[in-house]
What we know:
heterodimer, A: ABC transporter involved in vitamin B12 uptake, BtuC, B: mainly alpha, 4 strands, globular
Amino acid sequence: MSFETFLIQLLNGVQYGLLLFLVASGLTLVFGIMGVINLAHGSFYMIGAYLAWSLSERLGNLWAAIAVGVVLAVLLGMLLEWLLIKKLYARDHLYQVLLTYGLILVFEELRSVIWGDDVHGVQVPSMLAASIPLTETLSYPVVRLWISVVCLVLAVGMYLLIQRTRIGMMIRAGASNREMIQSLGINIQLLYRIVFALGIALAAFAGMISAPVSSVFPGMGNQVLIICFVVVVIGGIGSVKGAMVAAILIGLVDTFGKVLHVELGGVKLLPELAGMTVYLLMAVVLVWRPVGIFGRRL
Amino acid sequence: MGSRKLRIVVMLACLAALALLPFVAEKFYVQLFTKMLIMGIFAMSLDLLIGYAGLVSFGHAAYFGVAGYVLALISPQYAAASLWTTLPVAMGVSALLALVIGALVLRTSGIYFIMVTLAFSQMLFYLFHDTKIAGGTDGIYVYVRPAADILGWKPFDLENVAHLYLVVLALFAGVFVLLRTMLGSLFGRVIEGIRINEHRMRSLGYPTFRYKLACFVISGALAGLAGYLAAIQFGFVNPDMLGWHVSGLVMMMVILGGMGTLIGPAVGAMAMMLLELALQSLPEFGGVNFGKHWQLFMGSFIVLVALLLPYGLIGLLRARGQAGGGNGHG
């Protein structure tokens, strides 16, 4: 593998990892703070991508679509929390799984009713349509770099929000003792609603910014959800730092796993098995540290 | 304990009524009930984990689907395989898979357990979906159903709809009795003890991990039995059989019927099959074909059950029985 191809794969792996982080961080936050497992999290990734596609067709550009889409996602998140999720806080995980599984079916079918079952593409905005030449034949698309940068900015922003602001302090306090913070006069209901909507918006946003580089298709949310579960399990549930480390790790393992079969193509290595590598990684982590790399014993 | 005797009589009466079905009903209904009973076995196997051991597995379709695949892969293409060799092999592979996955996932608990069981079953789904080892996305056909010949004697013929139904019914009853007996024994008490307080059971000297693993393997093998029967009935296996929609569906059957009651999940399986059938035949309304988009209603129904019916249909009956000053057996 030449240095340039290696570099391209490295960048691709990191970009994929950062995108996974956006989705997985919402999942891990909602669990870590509210104690709710949300299977429908991946559906919001899909909804985000479909919103980016349909709104950019209608509004004529992706930027406006993302702006409108994020607002819609936040509203949807708040509505859901108010209607359904808040009833699950005191319930067993079993019912959280069941209810959010039902939501997946509802969202997937609504998508089919509203947008149909076709695969769509979203045009890369002209501002990002360029490529950076690496050698005479190889180049790297700017849009992928842009995705990585946006994800990094959001990750830093999230860190600052949770660690350095008043609302972040309330969120952390709410995660460790719900009753205590309530008796201190803080509206925990509202706080949870904000956290849930934030998680949803992150997933939807990830779907929107990835829409130009990957196609928009039915079932895309479920694929991402499973990989995010792997990320969360490896990183440790509730740990945003763990989600970051695990997401980059998975991004790299997945990307290089898919390339290496080309390298060893002569030595029949069942190229399709590359998809298994991330699960193998999870199995190894489970043997080594069942609570994940940064997880605390529950 | 008069109620216990009464229950046994009622169950035997139900069994007898079910056994009469192929002699009075049309082929369509016999096939429908075959499917319901197969899913009933599947749901009871999951109830052992969820309802009794308190292990919320969201990847139970893996063991169901793998057994179906084993049958399809080891059957000769245009000749019948033997039931007596393929069934133990299929269940054995499911049990082995459950042993390997169980040894890994049982290191975790709670929410991790749910996520990890789902992730491993999806790994298998992608294995069959993305590779060509078993027909990829298209799946493979089981052209000829396994033969039940023993040294030239043919006790029944699985190609015959009525015979298949009666075999499935007998296996259903067998699995029920097996699980009841097992749960009534010391093993079952230990399993329930672990669900309620694992630390206490461990300090009483029980190797809880091994008990849970045994439970996981038994459950996997029984799910394999259901998957094997499903492959025989449909004559066809595809990756969807081990996908998470099947895992979600069977979990729904367990909860709708009432977990931890064994018969509840079997009833839940029947109810879900009927509901699916009813929803799929919904008419077109306002330009939207609701029959085609039946999952919309199924999803909403699941949400409602999760919110309003945590103890399932059996729970509903018991609540009513107690409200009316009923016999109140546990």
